[in-house]
User: What shape does this take?
Amino acid sequence: MATTGIENEDAIHPGKPVVVDRYNLAARINHWITAISLILLAASGLAFFHPSLFFLTGLFGGGQSARALHPWIGVVLFFSFAGLFIRFWRANLPEKSDREWLAHANDVIAGNEEKLPEAGRYNPIQKVNFWAMSLLIIALILTGLAIWDQYFYDWTTIPQKRAAVLVHSLAAVALICVWIVHVYAVIWARGTLRAMTRGSVTGGWAWRHHRRWLKELAERHRFKKPAAPAE
Amino acid sequence: MEPSPHTAQSNPPVAVTPANLTERDLVRRSASSVPAPVRQLEPVAKLIDVSKCIGCKACQSACIEWNDTHPAVETNVGIYENPHDLTPDMFTLMRFSEWENPQTGNLEWLIRKDGCMHCEDPGCLKACPAPGAIVQYSNGIVDFVHENCIGCGYCIKGCPFNIPRISKVDHTAYKCTLCSDRVAVGQGPACAKACPTHAITFGTKEDMKKLAASRIEDLKSRGYEKAGLYDPPGVGGTHVMYVLHHNDQPEIYSGLPKDPKISPVVNAWKGMAKYLGFAAMGLAAAAGVVHAALAGPNRVTREDEEKAEDLVKEKA
Assistant: This one.
């Protein structure tokens, strides 16, 4: 069994129900800084993308400040996401069983998880999401620097800036699509959001969606004292 | 339609004249639409006869004076251009090139007054994301409206001539206005007024084309067989035109593009990318809604919890 899919913070609290730690506080703060930056970037970026959405610059105090802030928020996102990348890239490496899991795409969509191979800490769709985000953010920061005229105007030629702005807009659209899938998946698979708020999930959630991860944790005796009973 | 007021008189009126370039004369407004104009102004044009230019830079001085800009004093680096390039404070620039004519062996000093060409199909306006930051009047003038400009530099990417410059002071884009404020009250541009050799003239586009034709005929009779008018069709024609002695090779005039047009990359960005983008984002969101409706939520069951509890009991 592969052993890539366990993070140091992961641990089982025996009890009724079983609770499994999934994201520690630092990971959660890191995630939410990234999420907030991404939403602000999407709002300001879409305002420049199409005139019908220009009103969104109002959220930033007008067109001038939206234009000035957008690239700085991008820098925040880049470094914040880099933090997530360092945390989670190992657990997102592809494995042999991923192919078989993806071959059951119909069962994934229908929610027949019992027909799928047991998933580790991340299932293949989450992995694709992770790597797509990573690559798109690299594309966005590079093309973003090329069109950050205030500081980097002289770094590129005008034809390069044209290509950069086109790639930047397409990559942003792709990233928003990936983000929609990410958010939808969290809403669809009930009980997921608490992993990023409280930092833990129930044992049943882990059993249902990431059984191999749960089994590995149990196998390695990653237990903590029972969770405090509900008040 | 109302008659067009005269915008191109050689002897402008001295009486107080109401401005005739108003909101209702707009034919295009960036990132927004305008109602159909109630009248069509006579298309105007500035004609720059390169063969008559002596490189005195009176046009630059007049431009600085009229627009009240303050270009920085720079260091002489051994070339004639001063300042070194168009800047947010220098809307027009004499560009000098020394060209050896391979046919005659003569050294020709080609001096071109660079600046906004006032394209009929303006790439800057097409690229601009800020409503009303770039406008085009029915007489052909393309103007930047600074209070609407957000300083993003998209106009720089849209322009086929590399003209707009972003100010580091107020973060808005600047370029030649064709002296829209003077034209609005029946005067010609400051540069045309200052030119001592009449290399720069201003009038209706039709008149300027006639004048150019007579100049080209004269140049041809003097051995410049390829003399011609630079009014590039790729951008729908321009409202600043050049008479060139070598119209077959405009690039020798400090890189004047031979067939300027809005870059296909810019067209893709402003056209296909938008439809594709909204379609993709819309589909992703719609897929979520449809899936939620058909599949319903994926809930953890009591059985799942029990299985987990059993596993933990067994291993703990």
The radius of gyration of chain B is 27 Å. Chain B touches chain A through 55 residues (CB under 8 Å). The mean pLDDT of chain B is 94. The first strand of chain B starts at residue 26 and ends at 29.
